[in-house]
Write a structure and sequence with these properties.
The structure is a single chain. The chain has seven helices and five strands, in the order E-E-E-H-H-H-E-H-E-H-H-H. The protein is of the alpha/beta class and about 180 residues long. A five-stranded mixed beta sheet has the order 3-2-1-4-5, sandwiched between helices. A hairpin with a 5-residue loop joins strand 2 and strand 3. Helix 5 runs parallel beside helix 6, helix 5 packs across helix 7 and helix 6 packs parallel to helix 7. The longest helix has 15 residues. The N and C termini lie close together (about 5 Å).
């Protein structure tokens, strides 16, 4: 299988689930998925939150310390670097995003950036990598919960720290690669 163009697979870590309640993006990880489904360049950055809102459960899950967040670049700076990363080389002028459940990641990014007045130039018809995994496993009567569980079902182990945006998205792409024959 070949994709029509490269994708930017993305994952975020946040201070909570609801940007309208004040939750912020605190880490962004991304990987280029080439036309042949191989992984290209990777991007990762912590992001300085703009509010004091912290959901205790979210912060425990992502494990990102206040010390790291205090010295992180602003969301505006990170989004500019991400845009440069996403459009380098032969990428389309409006990159297509892919995520594990883009109804969270992509919508959260849109909401927080809109609130901060940051222009977004991505194609917001994202590819849902979670649905691909669910579809492939359900065809064989299996189901699981989360990237690590799906990886085990296909005989792979999660690599790197869990709930790290870059590790999460790299493992998500590995999972999709396991399902889709590459040319």
């Amino acid at each position: 299988m070949r994709l029509p163009h490269k994708l930017v697979a993305i994952d975020i870590e946040t201070t909570g689930l609801f940007p309208e309640a004040g939750a912020d993006i605190i880490q962004i990880g991304a990987v280029i998925v080439n036309e042949d489904l191989s992984m290209g360049e990777q991007f990762s950055s912590y992001v300085k939150p703009t509010s004091d809102y912290r959901d205790a459960k979210a912060m425990t899950i992502n494990g990102i310390s206040e010390e790291v967040l205090a010295i992180a670049p602003s969301l505006e700076e990170v989004m500019a670097k991400l845009w440069e990363f996403a459009t380098r080389g032969a990428h389309p002028t409006q990159p297509t995003l892919a995520a594990w459940g883009p109804t969270f990641d992509v919508v959260f990014i849109q909401s927080v950036c809109r609130k901060q007045g940051i222009e977004l130039r991505y194609n917001f018809r994202p590819i849902d990598l979670k649905t691909i995994a669910w579809w492939e496993l359900s065809r064989h009567g299996d189901s699981s919960n989360g990237v690590a569980g799906y990886l085990k079902k296909v005989g792979l182990e999660f690599e790197g720290p869990k709930h790290d945006a870059l590790s999460d998205i790299v493992n998500t792409v590995r999972l999709v690669q396991a399902f889709v024959p590459r040319v």
